[in-house]
Amino acid sequence: MQRRFEETGVAGMLARGEIDFLFLSHEHLDHLWGLQAVLRHRPDISVRVPAGFSETALAFIRGEHAPPTRTEVAPLRPHAGHLLFTPPDTPTVLYPGCVAVAFDLPILLGIRGEQSLYFRVRDKGTVCVTGCCHQTVTTLAEYALLPMSRRNRPFMACMAGCIWRLSEC
Known about the structure:
Layout: H1 2-8, H2 10-15, E1 21-23, H3 35-41, E2 46-50, H4 55-61, E3 83-86, E4 92-95, E5 98-107, E6 111-121, E7 125-129, H5 137-145, E8 155-159
Parallel strand pairs: 1-2, 2-3, 7-8
Antiparallel strand pairs: 4-5, 5-6, 6-7
């Protein structure tokens, strides 16, 4: 992760304070592994998580313990910034045209909740960015169409990680 941050310029953006916050979609380990790479460059960055993060995951963010798959030998960097919680099922405005929504639902491995970002793209519609989409693509799209389409804006696109659930199983 550190090398990719250097290659893509993210390391410099973090160091210069050009990235406002880190948005963790949910607490599965593969979504937390990059945290230490971020904190090496900016330990005071705000971190936004869905309400319901376990105390174990919060302790990891605070730098109190390493994940069980840790392979690095560098000391842990504790998080020194604000920890922000997104309440479930309530749009939280982050910027004009950008809201975070936390979906309160059980997901794999006893984890609860996943949050997503919705962006209003001028003259186009709504774009959603999510982690694994454990809440299902259908739920994600329906949410975008209901509260965010009051002005007849279509659901334009969805960008997600590796796990796509089209509907409830």
